[in-house]
Design a protein that fits this description.
It contains 6 helices and 11 strands. It is α/β, with parallel strands linked by helices.
Length: about 230
């Protein structure tokens, strides 16, 4: 990787500097649009004590679920925790800390981190345990909860569809989900993609995240496992 060229040649290089006790943001919704190979590499490194902000924790044996197998995750900040028996077991036993966050609030805490906004008010969660210990302010006779933004992630792990060598990103349909926001919110943002083209080949009108946010870029091959398959009898 040199100059404006963000492309790295290996997953070791992509995650160089990853250490114990770091804060990670990881894109994906269920198994859709997850940076599955970067997650596998985190698993292989054996780093522990991680705090991870992601919509959910994958499933048993795939996605972020594999990090639970070696108890690499200290805390999950998520909006959905189904589909994962090991996750449930570790939370109930006290081995894994869980911070449940409403999905829109989770998205905005990520977006605010990328935008440099320290916090925001939302009506979501007022009158529930979500608002416990937080400042409440009235706007137009309605109570709002002050939610702090996340700090910048030590590593933001993102999956995109296509990129140029400068790191400009295009996402495909619902696989975008949390990925564009997370791409802006990392101290080091690492993106894996299905295709890399030369700089200038992407139409600027269709770029979702500019390369200024991307630090490292790698081309991968993806299983794209289906989370729930339903077929007609």
């Amino acid at each position: 990787m040199a100059g404006f060229n963000k492309v790295v040649k290996s997953y070791d290089e992509a995650l160089d500097g990853l250490k114990d006790n770091m804060f990670l943001m990881v894109g994906g919704f269920g198994l859709c649009g997850i940076p599955e190979n970067l997650i596998k590499k985190v698993h292989e490194t054996g780093v522990k004590g991680l705090t991870i902000a992601s919509n959910n924790a994958g499933v048993d044996g795939f996605g972020l679920g594999i990090l639970l197998e070696k108890k690499q995750v200290k805390k999950m900040i998520s909006s959905y925790v189904g589909e994962n028996a090991l996750f449930e077991k570790q939370v109930l036993s006290g081995e894994l800390e869980l911070e449940l966050t409403p999905q829109g609030t989770l998205a905005e805490k990520i977006r605010a981190a990328g935008a440099g906004i320290p916090g925001f008010f939302t009506a979501t969660g007022y009158g529930t345990v979500v608002a416990d210990g937080k400042d409440i302010k009235m706007f137009n006779d309605r109570p709002y909860v002050l939610e702090p933004a996340f700090p910048k992630a030590d590593f933001a792990l993102v999956k995109a569809w296509k990129a140029d060598t400068y790191g400009n990103l295009i996402f495909r349909k619902t696989a975008a989900n949390f990925n564009p926001m997370i791409a802006t919110a990392g101290i080091i943002t690492v993106v894996e993609v299905e295709e890399i083209v030369e700089a200038g080949e992407l139409d600027p009108n269709f770029i979702h995240v500019p390369g200024i946010y991307v630090d490292r870029l790698i081309k991968g091959s993806f299983e794209k496992r289906i989370e729930q398959r339903t077929v007609k009898k």
